Amino acid sequence: MEPSDVHLIQSTLAGDDGAFAMLVARHRRRVFRLAGRFTRNDHELDDVCQEIFIKVYRHLGTYRADAPFEHWLARVAVRACYDLLRRRRRPEEPLLDIDLASEDNLAPAQAKELLDWALAQLPAEDQLVITLLELEEQPVCAIAELTGWSESKVKVRAFRARHRLKCILETTHE
Amino acid sequence: MSDRLERLFYAGRALPPDTARVEFGFETRLLARLRTESVPWCGDVWKLLPVFAAIVIILGAWNYVSEPLDLSAMLSGGATGELLANALGGGVQ
Predict the structure, then answer these.
(1) Opening angle at CA A86, ends A116 and B15, nearest 5
(2) How many CB atoms lie within 10 A of CB B23?
(3) pTM of the full predicted structure?
(4) Is residue B51 situated within a structural domain?
(5) Which residues span the domain enclosing B34?
(6) CA A43 to CA A26: how far, in whole Å?
(7) Considering only CB atoms, which chain A residues are within 8 Å of B7?
(8) Which of B13, B27, B38, B39 would best serve as a mutation to test chain A binding (most A beta carbons within 10 A)?
(9) Chain B closest CA to A27's CA: distance in Å?
(10) How confident is the model at residue B88 (pLDDT cuts 50, 70, 90)?
């Protein structure tokens, strides 16, 4: 029988790094998937994921077992990704070689490339809310919990972000 | 435009990021980094640099303004016996 998260956390706090490695192995897929939505390359992804788990390791003593560990971990991960977006300068590179005239027939990879480019033009808060809402398909209440924002702020942000995204795509299309 | 956006979102959902390469060996790299960072004060030593610099400046200034110890004058002034007694007795008379 596999040890529970709480058991692994207690062992880690007692100095067992092997227990922490097990905890990381158990939850890393979800963290990588989320962080991968915000990072531009493997190096950045590795960096931000290490940053997330180092924060978790250092603040493990503050985790209270009244909520699942993965919720706590997801909050730490979202905060780290948001910080990454805020630190990052807006991209200066132009849109890659995509024929927007035939946008209706774009291959999925090209459509994703176009979306990634358009998202990168948005402010950090807009990128975060659109990614969580539309790509990760998180409900508004979950996003509010993950970000620490009110539900109304999440809704307003999402509305504005969608509007900005539409404007960016319309401008690009012209 | 909404349909267009929805199509892009659909493509984004359909193609989740491929993270397999970075996940490989991640725990090993993470634990190695945690071990190197496990001495927290090492990273903060540089913050004490102004304090060390201030101490050096104060000691230098104190040394400059204070009267220097003139051993030759003490010896020629007949204090040889006192000096010898101090040296042999550890400063206790």
Answers:
(1) 25
(2) 19
(3) 0.75
(4) yes
(5) 2-64
(6) 22
(7) 111
(8) B27
(9) 11
(10) confident
For domain A1-88, give its CATH number from 2.40.30.10, 1.10.1740.10, 3.40.50.300, 3.55.50.30: 1.10.1740.10
For chain A, helix, strand, coil in percent to 5 are: 75, 0, 25
In the numeric block, which tokens belong to residue A78? Answer: 């979202």
Q: Do residues A129 and A154 lie in contact, with contact meaning Cβ atoms separated by under 8 Å?
A: yes
Given CB atoms, is B39 within the 8 Å cutoff of chain A? no
* pLDDT tens digits for range A71-102: 999 999 999 999 999 998 766 566 666 666 56
- The answer to the question of residue B75 being in a domain is no
**pLDDT tens sequence across A11-47:** 999 999 999 999 999 999 999 999 999 999 999 999 9
Written out in words, the top-level CATH class of the domain with range A93-174 is mainly alpha
Asked if B19's CB is within 8 angstroms of A36's CB, the reply is yes
The domain tally of chain B equals 1
